[in-house]
Write a structure and sequence with these properties.
The chain is of the alpha/beta class and 256 residues long. Helix content is 48%, strand content 11%. Helix 6 crosses helix 7. The longest helix has 20 residues. Bound molecules: zinc ion.
């Protein structure tokens, strides 16, 4: 999709609105409410990667018939990642870790252990800045490339998959990804483990509608996640489900 004509239309509509207000054809409030609704629309479409509005992401694989899902962990590697690795080993399940470059630098051995244990690693930017939605295309490319460079120096892998921090995909992120060539990995099961405060509720959210091909979003820097993970893995095992790496779920390349 080319956004330039879209932007021109939006600006033209806004100017027409200003003129209509100026000549008293419509009230100022109608224009204000329209602008607010438009801004909310922009916010919603750019923070919901699973809607594929700007970029086609891998969010779920409905063609999977085997009882396979992909557990994914964002924001590591950190000390608590080791507990997650132990649990995954205990249940013989594989997962995908979308790592922050800065954390890879701080915890190189943990990053290497994730790879040694046979899990997939992916790019989650270098700094995971809260300003992600406001960065220039150039700055986003730098964030992605610096994370890749760190992962290569420490783990010897060239990451090809990207998980957007805060799920943010906008036209600038889209242009950055066209430059770096990463494939976007989204999710279709959001656990809200980093937001909610009830372990029971988080677990229920995940297992309620679990089906083959699902991608579950979790965070390895969250203590609640570690506490529910054993029960989640037990649930999967009891129900003959297995967690596989995202690249295996879609038959895509994790590294180049
Ligand atoms: Zn994140």
């Amino acid at each position: 999709m080319n956004y330039k004509p879209f932007n021109i239309i939006v600006i033209l509509l806004f100017l027409i609105g200003v003129l209509l207000v100026f000549f008293n054809f419509i009230s100022f409030w109608i224009l204000l409410v329209s602008v607010i609704v438009y801004l909310i629309f922009l916010l919603v479409i750019s923070t919901n990667v699973q809607w594929n509005f700007f970029v086609k992401a891998y969010n779920t694989n409905p063609s999977i018939t085997r009882k396979e899902i992909a557990l994914t962990f964002d924001d590591g590697p950190v000390a608590s990642t080791l507990e997650i690795l132990d649990l995954l080993k205990k249940f013989d399940m594989k997962a995908s870790f979308f790592c922050i470059g800065k954390n890879i630098q701080e915890n190189p051995e943990i990053f290497q252990k994730i790879i040694e244990d046979g899990h997939m690693v992916g790019n989650h930017t270098f700094s995971h800045t809260r300003k992600m939605g406001f960065l220039s295309t150039h700055k986003i490319i730098e964030e992605i490339n610096t994370c890749n460079k760190t992962a290569f120096e420490i783990g010897g892998v060239v990451l090809k998959t990207y998980r957007p921090p805060f799920g943010i995909i906008n036209p600038k992120v889209k242009r950055a990804l066209e430059n770096t060539g990463h494939q976007v990995i989204g999710w279709n099961v959001r656990s809200y483990d980093a937001v909610l405060n009830s372990k029971r509720f988080i677990l229920k959210r995940i297992i309620k509608n679990i089906k083959p091909g699902d991608i579950v979003l979790l965070h390895d820097n969250n203590y609640q996640t570690i506490e529910i993970l054993e029960q989640l893995l037990l649930f999967l095992q009891t129900n003959n489900y297995v967690s596989v790496r995202v690249d295996n779920l879609f038959q895509i390349d994790a590294y180049s």
